[in-house]
Amino acid sequence: MNKKSADKKAFLIVHGMLQDFLSSSSNPPHEIYFELHPSVKDLFEAQGIPHTAVAKVEINGMEQDFSYNIQEGDQIMLYPYDELAADYVDQIYQSPSSFIADVHLGKLVKTLRLLGLDCAFDPHWDDQEIIDRSNAGPRMILTRDLQLLKNGAANYGYWIRSTNPDEQIQELFARFDLAEKVNPFTCCMKCNGSLQQAELQEVKDSVPPKVQQWHSDYWQCTNCGQVYWQGSHFKDLQQKVDKLLKDH
Questions:
Q1: What is the CATH number of domain 3-85?
Q2: DSSP designation for 96
Q3: Which residues of the chain have pLDDT under 50?
Q4: pTM for the whole thing?
């Protein structure tokens, strides 16, 4: 809110990764001007910080929930999930078992599935569909759309900082404890279903004749029926997986 149009002031300090959301380069505390008595959630989301990124709020040294109404001169401190003790936050914010991604993260989705990590994705899903599926899962929402994460119905979400798919997967492994959940080449890249080994006679109609001459091992998705084999690109994929796990 514009300083000239507001008659009250609060002071905001954000910790760790929450600083990524602020456009101001000034040193904390940041002066926030407001009218009436907005909730602390409304106040910090107006600064660009989605509620799904905030694990803990302290007002004047005391922990408060998102509904707390800001008063003149309040000192606000916000903490991200990765700075709190493991027993303080839900498991999904430490090491998600399942993800759901929006339409802009198709390449990241393929990498997650390559690693055997469950990631739901459909380019036709709108924000509400993604949120509903996230809450029902539960699934951690992955997106670069802050408005999606500010939706009041969203319970879980992570804002992907990078626009580069290779950097995005590195970012996720840096933020979440995922290494022990990796089980490469067990998830269908097409539909997210599980893969099981299959005999050639079972999948012969889906395998080109030349491939049948050179390969004897096949895997088929139990959901969509897609057939896989260790083609010429397999070595590159294996190196990609090995490097990621070595780095984390």
A1: 3.10.20.30
A2: -
A3: none
A4: 0.91
